[in-house]
Amino acid sequence: MLLGVGGAAGGLELLSGAPALAVPAPTIASCATWGARNPSDALTILGNNPNKILIHHTATANSTDYTLAHAYALSRSIQNYHMDSNGWSDTGQHFTVSRGGFITEGRHNSLSKLTAGSGMVQGAHCPGQNDQAIGIENEGTYTSLTPPAALYNKLVDFCAYIADQYNLPATAIYGHRDFHATSCPGDAFYAMLPQLRSDVAAKLNAWSTIIDNTSAGFRASSAWLTSTYSSQRYGADYRYATPIAAGDAAYYSATLPSSGNYKVETWYPANTGYNAVTPFVVFSSAGSTTVNVNQQANGGKWVSLGTHAFSSGARDIVAVSRWTSGTQYVIADAVRVTRV
Predict the structure, then answer these.
(1) What pLDDT does residue 15 have?
(2) What are the sequence ranges of the domains in the chain?
(3) What is the DSSP string of 125-136?
(4) Is 53:168 a contact under the CB 8 Å cutoff?
(5) Where is the Peptidoglycan recognition protein family domain (predicted)?
(6) More exposed terminus of the chain, fewer Cβ within 10 Å: N or C?
């Protein structure tokens, strides 16, 4: 059975294009956008990716000005202090989140490296961590008060984006005080870090995609006919074919955002005229795994094909094979892939 499918595939046929992002990029104002000064000295661009995210608070007033203009003014004020009072070449942290929920680039080139998901700029936000941690300043003082919802919710989105870009787990989020003798990011905010990690993890695990038989990620030969007969179908129609002892499979391809475990499910209409041992071949990192599905039952809902490990990028996920001991039609309708 596997040899039949492999003969049809001739190896994995990958989709073109870059991998899709699991987490959408938030709006981040660049240094040029908020009017940053040029660095006083050349910044160090590192080839390594960060291995953690460090949470700071600015220890400034808990402003009630939640406007974008205030966020830009805050960034200019921080840069002036870091360059003129601390004698640093630029803003120390990589990014800043205002109490209104606006994100600004702190140190020059931080945004371009994050967008590329490769390398980082050496910061000046925490001794011993500046060459391996992305530093995020959060506007306000949180020794006894917690951040406003606008700031916290944006920080969750932003940390999830950083983690996704650099393939970091949510557990890689720390407070400044974890690596330096400081009260930063404040007792109240520091106590929220377990919740922050949990909320970021939920964002990272939320990625899912559905490939229908009409999707660009589906391909099959002309022997796979189209039907609208069953109301249990997913979408407008589905494909069916008669079994043969040869490798003429229907393929479902997707672009996976990161390496890891994914739950794979299939949707099909059920009918006594359909096959009771339809082979679904899953192309995981461990190789090809065949899951036989009884398509005479459980139609019109998602049916699990198991959880499997995949590497990131564009690839074939599942093939529905015609090579089966049954004689009834094999059905190819839809497949859902969810990161877990």
Answers:
(1) 29
(2) 2-17+208-339, 28-204
(3) SSTTTTTTEEEE
(4) yes
(5) 26-180
(6) C
Over pLDDT 90: what percentage of the chain? 87
Residues 6+ apart with CB under 8 A from 116: none
∠ CA 3-234-261, rounded to 5°: 55
Find the farthest-apart pair of alpha carbons in the chain and give their distance in angstroms, rounded: 80
CB 309 within 8 A of CB 286: yes
> Residue 96 and residue 77: Cα distance in Å, rounded?
12
Pairing of strands 334-339, 260-267: antiparallel
Give first-to-last CA distance, the chain, whole Å: 29
pTM, rounded to two decimals: 0.62
Mean pLDDT of 115-139: 97
d(CA 130, CA 124) in angstroms, rounded, equals: 6
Cα separation, 5 vs 283, whole angstroms: 11
Q: Where are the beta strands (DSSP E) in the chain?
A: 28-29, 45-46, 52-57, 95-97, 103-105, 120-121, 133-138, 173-175, 208-212, 218-219, 225-227, 238-241, 250-256, 260-267, 278-284, 287-293, 302-310, 313-320, 330-332, 334-339
6 by DSSP, 3-state: which? helix
Determine the Cα angle at 200 with ends 199 and 205, to 5°: 100
Report the C-alpha gap between 198 and 215 in whole angstroms.
Answer: 33
SS3 content of the chain, % helix, strand, coil (to 5): 25, 30, 50
Residue 33 has, within 13 A of its CA and on its CB side, a CA count of 16
Burial of 338 (0-12, 13-18, 19+ CB in 10 A): middle
pLDDT of amino acid 18 = 32
Q: Report DSSP letters for 105-127, one per residue.
A: E-STTHHHHHHHTS-EE--SSST
Cα–Cα distances (Å) from 52 to 4, 48, 130, 239, in that order, read 46, 12, 10, 46
